[in-house]
Amino acid sequence: MKKIIVLILLSIAIKVTAQNSNSIFSKDPIINLENWQKKRLYFGFYLGFNSYDFKIDYKKMETDPRYSSDIQVDNAVGFNVGLVTNLRLMEYLDLRFEPGLYYGSRTLKYPPTVGFDSPSDAIREINSTYINFPLLLKFSSLRTGNVRPYLLGGVSANLNLSSNSKSLDDNYEERFRVKSWTTNYEIGFGIDIFSEYFIFSPSIRGQFGINDELIRDNNPNSPWTGNIESLKSRGFLINFTFH
In angstroms, rounded to a whole number, what is the distance separating the alpha carbons of residues 46 and 240? Predict the structure, then answer.
C-alpha cells in the first residue's frame, strides 16, 4: 500500500512539472528557473512518509533461557510534514534546516520464552510523535537541463511528544517509556526537478539514532527492559519537497 501511494504522488508531481515535451525530460528542454540556484536563501515545504523501527542491543545473559530469542519489531507507515530553509554556501553546497512533524508507530513482540502471565504483556505498541530538527548539508551535482541530483547528510535532534518519560509508571502498569530527546545522523539522496514555477524535489533518507533512548523499568530484572543494553530508533524517510 505504501509503495502505491508513493508512486501515485510521484506520478502526479512529475505530470504537473512536465506539462509539455520541452519542459523537463526532452532532449533539448527549455531551461526553467535558470537563476534560482544562485539565490542565497530560499524556502519550501515537504510532505512524506516514514517507517521507523528499533535497533536493539542485548546484554550477555546466555545462562538465562528466557532471552534465547530476540524481540521482534513490527513497523507501520507514518507521515511527515515540515518546512525547509535552504542557505547557499557555494555553487554545489547548501546548508538546510528542515524542521518537521513526524508520526510513526512500532510494535515490540517479546519471545514466548520470556514467559509472561498474559499474552498482552508480550506486546508493547509504541506510538511516536516527533518534532524533528535536522541540520543537513546538501551536495548537488552539475545541473543537466532541468534535473539536478544531490546527496544529503547531517545530524538531527528529535523531541518525542509521546515518550512517557515523565511517567512514574512503567511496564508493570503497561507503560513503555523512552527518552524525550534523541540525536541522530541522517544520510540520503534526491533530485531537484525544475518546472516553470517551482522546484519539485523527491528524496529518500535514512535516520539512525545515536544515543540509547530506553528508560528502564524500576525493577532491574524487568522482563521488558532488563536484558536490553541499548535501544535506538532507525527511520526510512521519503519526502516530497516543493520550493
Answer: 5
Q: What is the CB neighbour count within 10 angstroms for residue 27?
A: 7
Contact between 138 and 96 under an 8 Å Cβ cutoff? The reply is: yes
Half-sphere exposure for 27 (CA within 13 Å, toward CB): 0
More confident residue, 115 or 139: 139
- Would you call 9 helix, strand, or coil by DSSP? helix
Say if residues 217 and 224 touch (Cβ distance below 8 Å). Answer: yes
**Beta-carbon contacts of residue 241 (< 8 Å; ≥ 6 apart):** 44, 45, 46, 84, 190, 199, 200, 201, 202, 203
Question: Is pLDDT larger for residue 71 or for residue 117?
Answer: 71
Whether residue 201 contacts residue 190, with contact meaning beta carbons closer than 8 Å, is answered with yes
Structure-block grid coordinates of residue 194: 525544475
Cell readout for 198 is: 517551482
- Tell me the pLDDT tens digit for each residue of 54-74: 999 988 765 566 666 788 999
Q: How far is CA 74 from the centre of its chain?
A: 16
The region, left, alpha or beta by phi > 0 then psi within -120 to 50, assigned to residue 115 is left
